Amino acid sequence: MTQIRALFAGLVAVFLVAAAPASAAEVQPYSPEALAEAQSAGKPILVDVYAAWCPTCRAQKPIIEDLTQQPKYKNLLILRADFDKDKEDLKALNVRSQSTLIVFKGGDELVRSVGSTSPVAIEGMLDPVSYTHLRAHETF
Q: Which tens digits make up the pLDDT trace of 55-90?
């Protein structure tokens, strides 16, 4: 009976791990050094500027999390910047508001949005096929 329980517990654990979505994108805290390193490596980057008190930022978070579960964003690096704590560092990016999303490909800023909570608009920012200057086979 103990073996059956152990087997059942193991199967449940495997199911839970398989059912839990793992983020395809990597998420790190923002720092100018992390941004510079990712840019020099040519990585696709989303700088997500949020504030804990911001309702727009709270609306953006699950949208970004859901979108970046997709395998096409496996190489995307998300740098989460706290608008209140990182304010001085964000001046270099000309960030003036929380809920700012900035997409970089290497050192090039591709697109910027402030306050968007539209899943379609945010996906359009992240979707590499929407940028004609990127090669068709390139993916984030």
A: 999 999 999 999 999 998 989 999 999 999 999 999
Question: Do the strands 100-105 and 44-50 form a parallel or antiparallel pair, or are they unpaired?
Answer: antiparallel
pLDDT in tens, 7-61: 444 444 434 444 445 558 999 999 999 999 999 999 999 999 999 999 999 999 9
Looking at residue 44, the DSSP 8-state letter turns out to be E
**Element housing 56 (H / E):** helix 55-67
Q: Which residues contact 99 (CB under 8 A, 6 or more apart)?
A: 49, 50, 51, 54, 56, 57, 60, 114, 115, 116
pTM reported for the whole predicted model: 0.77
CB 67 within 8 A of CB 119: yes
| Beta strands across the sheet bearing 44-50 | 26-29, 77-82, 44-50, 100-105, 108-114
Mean pLDDT of 108-116: 95
